[in-house]
Amino acid sequence: MPRTTTLECPGCPPLRALTFDSLGLIKVIESRVPQVVERWGDPDPSKCVLAASIDDRKKDPLLAVARKNGEVEAVNPLNGEIHAVFSNVGEDGVQPEDDAISGLHLFRRERPSGKALHASISVTKTWKVCGSGNVLCSKVDGSENYAVFGGKGVEVNLWDLEDCTKIWTAKPPPKNSLGIFTPSWFTCTTFQSNDDHRKFVADTNSHQVHLYDISAQRRPVLSFDFRETAIKVVTEDQDGHTLYIGNGSGDLASFDMRTGTCIYFD
């Protein structure tokens, strides 16, 4: 009979993942045991986690968590300690239940002078990215100078974050063969690589994958369908051309966006 021996790699830390749920809990999972090893927070539906972003640097890592009640927390991802909390309720008095957070990005860059940005814990700047519809997804590029937004009834559009100006907007989809116009419904988006803000992918509620290149045209340069349910998540690979996609039915796949070819499906 063959014998299998598990060897521990000295000095190699276990794979560690943070997960979030509708009760507002942050759960820590490690690969060495198939179970949750830590839970941070108390169960509270009003603190349901809507979005999260992490700066996983070696020194003083930081996790930002946006909650249903409008609070955004800065958390130590190593022990769950909360460093700061602020509210996203703006000067217009709109309440969180009427204006839920749909995306969050923890900026990592420094000022051009080399000095780190130290700001008070408050909302320093706000602007509207669309005249109507609901923003459901957003993504900041690798340089942290540009961001793409999209949503239900909101065409994907690209913004310059330094000037808070819109620099590009996609064209609405054409009418179908019956002359019926169906508004766009984007569910998730990401840039194809960290080095080029001109190319990004936006996926839809009607299980379509669209690749845009703002230097080429205002409609997708590549489009294809993925299974039969709404696409919920998309993320890029470090190679600059592979994308990973998941939908509401639990299907996962990777695609080579140079050709739209499916590389892996589960």
From TrEMBL:
What InterPro entries has UniProt attached to this entry? Quinoprotein_ADH-like_sf (IPR011047), WD40/YVTN_repeat-like_dom_sf (IPR015943), WDR74/Nsa1 (IPR037379)
Q: Which GO terms describe its biological process?
A: ribosomal large subunit biogenesis
Q: Record's Gene Ontology CC terms?
A: nucleolus; preribosome, large subunit precursor
Superkingdom of the source? Eukaryota
Name of this protein: Transducin/WD40 repeat-like superfamily protein
UniProt source species: Salix purpurea (Purple osier willow)
